UniProtKB/TrEMBL annotation:
Keyword Transcription regulation set for record: no
Function: Component of the MICOS complex, a large protein complex of the mitochondrial inner membrane that plays crucial roles in the maintenance of crista junctions, inner membrane architecture, and formation of contact sites to the outer membrane.
Source organism per UniProt: Mikania micrantha
Primary localisation category: mitochondrion
Name of the protein in its database record: MICOS complex subunit MIC10
PANTHER family linked: MICOS COMPLEX SUBUNIT MIC10, MICOS COMPLEX SUBUNIT MIC10 PROTEIN
Entry's localization field: Mitochondrion inner membrane
Length: 88
């Protein structure tokens, strides 16, 4: 009888990277669109409009990176706690 060798969701790196990539792209696009709309409403110069789009894109990428970094660190600290339990 073959045992099912599924990887627990906490350790499935492919699923995590897919979720984080999705989060990053989604936040990049949403914040870029928000920056573009704000630029159209608030600014007249094309340079400042592009700057507002770039600022929005940076905010989106930064927030996605921050959340993904926290989730990866939480997984690492959880794994280290489990490892410590086995050693003591």
């Amino acid at each position: 009888m073959a045992e099912s060798k599924e990887i627990p969701s906490a350790y499935d790196l492919n699923a995590k990277w897919d979720a984080y990539l999705d989060l990053g792209v989604r936040r990049f696009v949403y914040s870029s669109v928000t920056g573009a709309l704000a630029g159209l409403i608030l600014f007249r110069s094309p340079v400042t409009r592009w700057a507002s789009i770039a600022f929005g894109a940076g905010v989106g990428i930064g927030s996605a990176y921050s959340e993904c970094s926290q989730k990866f660190d939480a997984a690492n600290t959880l794994a280290s706690k489990v490892d410590k339990l086995w050693y003591f």
